[in-house]
Amino acid sequence: MRGMIKRTVPLLLAAGMGLAATAWSAESLQDVMKRRSLSQQDLLAAAKTYVPTGKRDEFLAFSSGGQSGQVIVYGIPSMRILKYIGVFTPEPWQGYGFDEESKKVLAGGRIDGKDISWGDTHHPGFSETNGEADGQYLFINDKANPRIAVLDLRDFETKQIVVNPIFKSEHGGAFVTPNSEYIMQAAQYPAPLENRKYEPLSSMNEKYRGGITFWKFDRKEGRIKEKESFSFEAPPYWQDLSDPGKGPSDGWAFTNSFCSERYVGGIEDGRPPYEAGCSAKDTDYLHVMNWKKAAEMVKAGKGFKLINGHKVIMMETAIKEGLLYLIPEPKSPHGVDVTPDGKFIVIGGKLDSHASVYSFEKIMAAIKAGKFESKDAYGIPVIALKDAIHVQVQLGLGPLHSQFDSKPCVVYTSLYVDSQVAKWDYCEGKVLDKISVHYNIGHLMTMEGDTSKPAGKYLVALNKLSIDRFNPVGPLHPQNHQLIDISNSKMQLLYDMPFPLGEPHYTVAIDAKKLKPGVRYKVGTDSRTDKPHPSAAKAGEERIVKKGNKVEVFGTLIRSHITPEKIDAEVGDEVTIHLTNLERAQDETHGFTVSTYNVHASVEPGKTVTVKFKADKEGVYPYYCTEFCSALHLEMMGYLLVKPKGWKDTGKTLAKGSYTEADYKATVKKVVDTQAIIDSVVAYITSVNYKDFPDAVAMVEDAFDQLGHSKGLKEKHEGFAAKKDWENANLWAEQIWQYQVKCADLGIRAKTHLEQNGAKKVAK
Amino acid sequence: MRGMIKRTVPLLLAAGMGLAATAWSAESLQDVMKRRSLSQQDLLAAAKTYVPTGKRDEFLAFSSGGQSGQVIVYGIPSMRILKYIGVFTPEPWQGYGFDEESKKVLAGGRIDGKDISWGDTHHPGFSETNGEADGQYLFINDKANPRIAVLDLRDFETKQIVVNPIFKSEHGGAFVTPNSEYIMQAAQYPAPLENRKYEPLSSMNEKYRGGITFWKFDRKEGRIKEKESFSFEAPPYWQDLSDPGKGPSDGWAFTNSFCSERYVGGIEDGRPPYEAGCSAKDTDYLHVMNWKKAAEMVKAGKGFKLINGHKVIMMETAIKEGLLYLIPEPKSPHGVDVTPDGKFIVIGGKLDSHASVYSFEKIMAAIKAGKFESKDAYGIPVIALKDAIHVQVQLGLGPLHSQFDSKPCVVYTSLYVDSQVAKWDYCEGKVLDKISVHYNIGHLMTMEGDTSKPAGKYLVALNKLSIDRFNPVGPLHPQNHQLIDISNSKMQLLYDMPFPLGEPHYTVAIDAKKLKPGVRYKVGTDSRTDKPHPSAAKAGEERIVKKGNKVEVFGTLIRSHITPEKIDAEVGDEVTIHLTNLERAQDETHGFTVSTYNVHASVEPGKTVTVKFKADKEGVYPYYCTEFCSALHLEMMGYLLVKPKGWKDTGKTLAKGSYTEADYKATVKKVVDTQAIIDSVVAYITSVNYKDFPDAVAMVEDAFDQLGHSKGLKEKHEGFAAKKDWENANLWAEQIWQYQVKCADLGIRAKTHLEQNGAKKVAK
Fold first, then answer.
1. How many helices (H) and strands (E) does chain B have?
2. Yes or no, beta carbons of B650 and A202 under 8 Å apart
3. Domain boundary at B463, B487, B517, which?
4. pTM exceeding the 0.90 threshold for the entire prediction
């Protein structure tokens, strides 16, 4: 059998060669189109969305994952999902909620002292600079358990979760002010603002309240400052979505609402249900707020009341200070969207057939003139619709949400009941185009379409049902995001993308070039605090510290072994394991788990994580790397040995392997032969302009890193050989070969990369 | 504003018309190719994978989700992910682990009395009939916490989780016998078989064991029978993957292994790590088992020992009864794959460069002749490699796993180190083609490629790294599944698919036509037991039962209200809410949560689910539908009111709305006008051959269902009007309109569907 190994060696040279000039098809394009029943239009759509191997998408979309509690990232135009990011729900692949560092983030979202293990994410929002998406942070809300989370787009990880101190539900968040000063979050179903306060439904009008929270965001720290945040108290209308002003309207914010009827259902008692009572009137209220003035007031320490320790501007104060106004808006609106130039606010009434365009200038004029048609039941001044409206346009049934084009005055509005998207001109008030979608569109989004500089090109219809669009997968259906080309005068449907987990409600997309995520951490980083991890271990400094019933492990991970490979504990010990991934190579993540102890960690290059558990079960528990990392990945393991209390060691030693001098010599020869191969791969690589290929350079560096790990092992195996310890001599020589295999693996990858990307011979 | 409503009406007719004849492009195909830098080859690949809107994929792939603990379903050739199925990890979108029914499934996976909230899924396997994938069930293992799960492909839900009673880790499962009699699961890292039994590592050879479990599957019940299952005790070699024989080899099973060195690492103590010691020898052992004979023996109640209450055939018995043999196999193998005809077994040694083809006929001949080269340390007869081998073929570096083509003798093997796929002939032993993949392929799969009737056409390379293939999304990278066209003599790379959550290890694919999932349950079904739910409520029979401190709600869900809309409780009450979704329409799922009480349910049409919690917090907690279901979805809510103990009702009644006779009359007129529209949509639908379109028929049925809900409401509102109760009169009339809107929504959907699918006028 040893002979087989010898024969493998020449293959290292042959790799990637010989069969490269593959004939790429026996079928013509026409054959394929005929066989697959593709029309010319289908082919054009395919050409507009297909992203060939190794090429990148133009835009990245960040979608709420609805009841999954996650954020989902996908590429446009390929519509390939790139990542699910754990936010409100523990997710083991990422170790999220399974390692101690991420548990701390989730602990920020505890409510009334208890863990909440899911979320209902609805509306993501990017951090903004001068009204433009800047690609630094993403914010996302939880409707069910009113919270908001901060995600850092340098590593696509959730860094913070904060709990809304006064709401019992909220739907409309996160909406970000033009320089990310504040993140808006509005209540949905009214309830008493005081925590754990019961009031009967008969007190709806007097004791139940809505509200709008402004979370203060600290750009430098990348965290929300809870103590510097504040809220507006609002009437028990069901506040919904918001949008802060920009440009001329910067400093103001807009929140719509529905069920301004303040209806209380009770179908079980013979009352009409909420759906009837909450949509009986023709108009609801747009809330218009001066957030800049409010923020200054709060900063000055006045004008608020503390409720549950949180600063709340009561309606009385807001009215007195001119901070809050109402304007009627057509029945049961959903989206409220400020135009890129900040001059208008577009609102669709989902039970009306119009989109209404409000003029900020007119609103300000009415406020300045003190021209109000009435006050609502709580004394808030109401501006007449006619005094605020720029234009109303009949679009179709169920207008829900609007997004803007890069072309001036062009806006797209989703029509829920019609299952259509309307393209129209909000300056002139005329419909330009319509396209049918499948089925029942909710939100829609254009590229950076809710910022001050929309990028145009694509629109995505976020359909709420898919019904018959895809292969059936049981009673619970995927959602359907449809990609539409908006670069021409007529919209063209390009692609149907099933959404396999969670119901996305809203999505935001950004030019991929604006994102600059890292691929590794500084060695020993706690990724959740962005700070050096106090328990990181360096290579060679791994150790196990036992104090009383506490076992603390300071370990490392590298292709392909865990140091230490054995952890001893006694039943009942508290075991804490800190692991640092020593890799610098891109994508060389290691995972870690201990059999049946319900811990898991994902340890990306440079990261340090901690897992903790009570060794409450006697026995033998393997631990292992859970992320495939090299050909020897399955061997990257160790044992947790939980001894009974007071176990006396028998003094028995580990069994010896049966290795001979011949084994050792064969292994040494294998190492020499393999080195010759590596040298020849290196010769190829250095014969071409590999330095012009950053990915190849990174692979070559990693290859030499791997080989570097074998430093000192030659002396080691020769030392053992001198003592005729053939087992140790053979195995340490074998370990050199393991590093050689990893080095060769990387070298071959680099070589293939160079060959496929047109590397050229260079003069020596 | 009321006027606006009137103006909407004609739009119901215009929907989907007028703009249907969209000019589909201003750009030519050549323009697009130039702009997007697409080659002719790219375009051909795009044409081979693009699936136009409403069309279906040819195959469905079921992939392990690695550390996510889930199963992932995607379509081929589009490579669109259709569903993540919750298996070992709670997943709130599906209510998995958040409703009581699914909690019971997860409770089957508790270990040592504790919940395990994740899994490391590796190898899915379909149920088989006569060696062919039959599309009825899917099985998947958990490596970290040795378990196996049963998924039903009628509803794509997890139905059962069982814990392996004797292993502490297992990698190789699930592998299914040709008529799904048993599901194989092999141990990985050796440990004492007795539960919670400590043995020092120095007792590795004597006290640590591996093993192979055969789980008995009951086809009728669709569940594993734990009591009828059994295991083979095996040496402390690291058993890995398995494959049962088929055709001539049916009744036998094959499991490979590595680290037959039985090495114990200890790098922290100066010993070479496992990766060196576990790959020092040139060969490991293929385990050959007669499972049929073993099963008969166990069924007869003999030949086994009970360990942890589980039937284990000890090595001594297996040797004596001729049930277990070993054959050397090249160094550190991964896959073991029986050819479709059952005559050969293909094995790659991941540190060798060969694939080895074993002949079942030769193995049987050696066994029959008692021709063994030796016995291993445990007395198991070892058949010489030369007496078992058919052919060995040099493929390249790191052969891992093989899958078969529909063409005779053609097999594909993944080459990990070379990052290639080799196509070769296992009859003649010659290489036919090679293709490079990115980067470092682990498993690969062809369509039904591990069954007795492979379907050919496509191959998917399951790459372990993606590095630079996609837009960067932080240090944790997606995996990369590459689709390869194998219908021609040369392989062609078609598509790179990022894997956004979890690390898939192995995937199986099935002809989509073999799957017949349902879209609804019989009303009142517990989907986890497939039985009628004892607490289902019918429409009109909703009720709340309070006994002592227990509040039990028997509720229903329908577009768009929850019955009841109010639940009263006292602090400390145990609240149990059963909800039945009364919908029959496809994709009309409702979700349910109660603010901050950490419960969630996904209630697909017909399903009944239960959520349970302790109302330990005084206050007002909205509950709502979490899955967008109609234009009035946001109004589908109610309140849980948790009163302080001994709360005395103030007797205050709900506030009245301010509705007038004029409001009522306007609403009645709106209802009449809308009915005229509905009639006109109906007129269109019945003017064409809609009955030829099953989806349209379903929508029309649902539309009339919706309208049917308004039965009796006319009498109701007229009755209130007669009593001059304008609020109730108006709101009940409004409720008719709500049903009309839902009806119109469906009618418009049906109309669009008919227009887009070429419905034709029929003669009256």
1. 14, 44
2. yes
3. B517
4. yes
